[in-house]
Amino acid sequence: xxxxLSASLHALNxxxxxxxxxxxFASVAGATPAHASKSMKAERCxxxxxxxxxxxxxxxxxxxxxxxxxxITALLIRAGAYGRKGDYxxxxxxxxxxxxxxxxxxxxxTRALAYHNRGEQKRAISDCDAALLIDPDNTNALFxxxxxxxxxxxxxxxxxxxxxxxxxxPGRTDVLFARGTARYSxxxxxxxxxxxxxxIDLGAAEASVFYLRGLAYQGLRNNAKARADIATALRIDPxxxxxxxxxx
Length: 248
Description:
Blueprint lengths: L6 H8 L2 H13 L10 H8 L5 H9 L6 H18 L2 H14 L3 H13 L3 H14 L4 H13 L3 H14 L4 H13 L3 H13 L5 H13 L3 H14 L3 H5 L4
Helix pairs in contact: 1-9, 1-11, 2-5, 2-7, 2-9, 3-4, 4-5, 5-6, 5-7, 6-7, 7-8, 7-9, 8-9, 9-10, 10-11, 11-12, 11-13, 12-13, 13-14
């Protein structure tokens, strides 16, 4: 018998932005402007990937001689640093400052990701729409918008956005996992097993991926594969079952 979709799996759907946050905020941190200055201030902001990177960018931004392009990059890098710390209010502030200077797909999806992680899904979708008007192939914006739709329970729109993201970047395991959860939520167990299997083949080894695939196999009445996946998940993380079924 298939185990019911628990409140905790719904929470997993809501929190899928965590995976995109790590990727997108990290990608912001890796940005450097062309012809970046090699000064000590610029070095600490643009080239030093560390917990102090945001501090380095703050120091640089206080320098009134900094040009507009360097300021934009420093704001985006600092937004990424704040995002990795979970300080989403400051992410919104810095991304908004960038948008006062230039229409930027990166700034829009960065702010959208912060809104998503704060539970402001309609704002997240609006910012992703704006990012995609500037850069229709932006996979981060597609992923964040898909996660926002999924958080609102609009699984069809989420699946569509994930499919578009995968069309541009077929090997993104975070997007495959996200689409797998959305497909599971619509009782498309075959589609869920396909996405989760592809994610596993590409290197995803988290307990949640195996456990969810096990639940999808239960939906397909393939109990042998279901038991094997759930056993694998429990070996990786003995607490995973309680996370999916907290009221047992």
